[in-house]
Amino acid sequence: KTDPAWLPDQAFRAIGTRRVVVCGGDGPVVRTVVDEVTRACARYGGRVWHGTAGSPDADGADLLLVLTDLDCLPGEAAAVRAEIAPGQPLGKEGYALARPAGATVVVADGPAGLLYGLFHVARLGEAAFDGWRPLEVHRPASARRMLDHWDNIDVHPVMGQVERGYAGGSIFWRAGEPRDLHRVREYGRLLAAIGVNAVAVNNVNVHATEARLLTDRLGDVAAIADVLRPFGIRTHLSVSFASPMVLGGLPTADPLDPRVREWWSSAVADVYATIPDFGGFVVKADSEGQPGPFGYGRTHADGANALAAALSDHGGVVHWRAFVYNHRQDWRDRTTDRARAAYDHFAPLDGQFADNVILQVKYGPIDFQTREPVSPVIAAMPSTSVAVELQVTQEYTGQQRHVCYLGPLWASILRFRPWGPDGRAVASVAGDGGGLVAVSNVGDDPFWTGHPLAQANLYAFGRLAWDPFLDPLDVLDEWISLTFAPCPSVLRSALHEIMDSSWQVYESYTAPLGVGFMVNPGSHYGPGVDGYEYTPWGTYHFADRDGVGVDRTRASGTGYTGQYPAPWRDVYESVASCPDELLLFFHHVPYSHVLRSGLPLIQHIYDTHFDGVTKVVEMRRRWAEIADFVNAARHARVAQLLDEQVRCAQEWRDQINAYFFRKSGIPDARGRHIH
Ligand code: GCU
């Protein structure tokens, strides 16, 4: 049986005990609203009336869910709609919520808005029906809130079925064939409840079988799209840039070759004939061995625009990833800096992309590390739609074996102001442009995400994509309330103690102060301090007997700081003003360098690593204490994973501390044992 995650029956109790009126027409999304309410009422004894026209018996209703373009607008709903400022449309996905008198009213101008309004009422629970509520209008900050699955149809010999997946196999395919999509339906429901409206179903590294999803296996995609559509979700596909060759038999994939352009047009026309609301393509080109326009001497604008041209008549978009760097660099070459690569490739192309191209930029310049500065590409493309890519799957943040609630990390990125305190935030750049995208952490594991507490990350992604200025700890509290409903306060406080700062705790026992990596090559799990130091991957820390860190200054380093607008180009340039948590990302400093805490760098490394393990041991103790309040299977799974987290954190502590002690020869000022 699949874990209900944040939608246990209890989450609908407040709705299910009431008299509900749905005036909502008849599309698939409205049917989802009606089904949800009907199921809740059947379980808890409430009553539901659903109609499309005429005058419903709204008298005595406790909850009205109303689509405003119908002629069955009951008086209360009409009054709520009238209160919304003219010229401030709710949009396709927005809704208004109020409780003017005896009834709670949700009005929306489109079916998706009605669905999101229903889930809002579920989140409020009994509070939605308590007393008077003023009008609240809710609209998503970004029109595109997307999850990318890195799923393969086949099991890849090295990467497994889900690349960087830590939750079992794919929910879409098994043994090379489409699965029963029952779980995909449940997934769609979970995603609708958090406002996600787009899903790309397959890995950005497109292997031979998966390339065929565009052509002879399009039926697989259509079946998924049919299941997700009633939840307001559009389906997207990762495609190979070389498709015209590997699928079409052409001798070239040159984006300016007329045969290639013709091939894309006709392939796309077939896709839309099968899936009329298809979302579009995700493309990883010239990246880590994937084919791309460079092979033909063309730019990434040429490449992206060729696919965009094929999609544009149908309303589709291309998510073109900016993750382009030299993964075969010579580690001896100190002039090449992987952090610079995306900006160097893409900033000169600003203004050259077609309107339906979205440049998909990882939040940091390297690769989803626990701590990175915000990518300078986000501020460098004013004439391009930019989507910010986050990683919900915990590739570098504990692989769903460690508790690591990522809401605070994402909030810090989304609130970052690339042009300084008076400028716009990253969230607003994404909101006006391509929106937010994240790599999903879901698989066929009964808990969806392997670690049951990793569900909170998926939840937080959706909620922050909808409203990036929500407090991530409030979002966590919301998740706790729903998932553990009815949640006793002892459990709530224990979960907060375990999860609130779990990202900072993870950071404290892994790679220090933004230096990144130091992981085992390939798997990216567990400590491997020099694992990448002499490799071609461009991820170095340069530790020697005197100090550690990467000099990315203009004055003496790679010049990366110059990719930021003021004030950050100067804040990061100087050791004195660079935030400590990013110090080793931007500077190579001696072990004796004194941090703002007053501690020398080396002592900070020792202290945080000892401390981090102590905190993980404490997490495990807290979890053991609340066994009586948590479902036994869920409790056991987390307990087992906390054992692994303690083991792995100790390993990190001992390897990092030993490494830096041996390099520096400086003993721990507090005399603790270092191996
Ligand atoms: C990381 C990850 C790869 C993935 C890549 C990407 O490098 O390790 O597995 O393919 O990111 O985002 O494309």
From TrEMBL:
This is Xylan alpha-(1->2)-glucuronosidase. The gene is aguA_1. It comes from the Bacteria. It comes from Luedemannella flava. InterPro entries: A-glucoronidase_C_sf, GH, Glyco_hydro_67_C, Glyco_hydro_67_cat, Hex-like_dom2. Residues 137-448 form the Glycosyl hydrolase family 67 catalytic domain. Residues 449-672 form the Glycosyl hydrolase family 67 C-terminal domain. Keywords: Hydrolase.
